[in-house]
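Record type: monomer structure entry
Structure origin: computed from sequence
Chain ID: A
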Amino acid sequence: MSTLPVYRWSLAPDGYATRRQLRARGLRPGGQDVAATLERPRRRGRPPLVAHLYRVDLALPVRPMTPGRWAALARANRARRICPECRRDAGYVIPPSLGMCSPCAFPDNAPEGASWNSSPHTAR
């Protein structure tokens, strides 16, 4: 078992990139193992920040989105907008911290006559 080369932050040689850097170039790691790591030291005895590096020459192009993938993504995002309490489309992604839309989470703060899909600032 060999050890990975470790480089200091922003001192990696050309030919290596992080996942984000690969994605910005339209590439993906493509199943290759981590080729090296970057370490950024921190103060007060905390462990260093670590970033994994992949070889750019072994990276593959990003797979294109198919109509089926677009439809699945739209369904997943739509499901995140449905309030589990009132079963209505909130008009925004329900925050996981609340677990329900704002009118269901804070019924006392809703203005008089406000509809479920309106903002609390737009009373009718």
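Annotation 1: The first helix runs from residue 19 to 24.
Annotation 2: The helical segments are 19-24, 67-81, 102-105.
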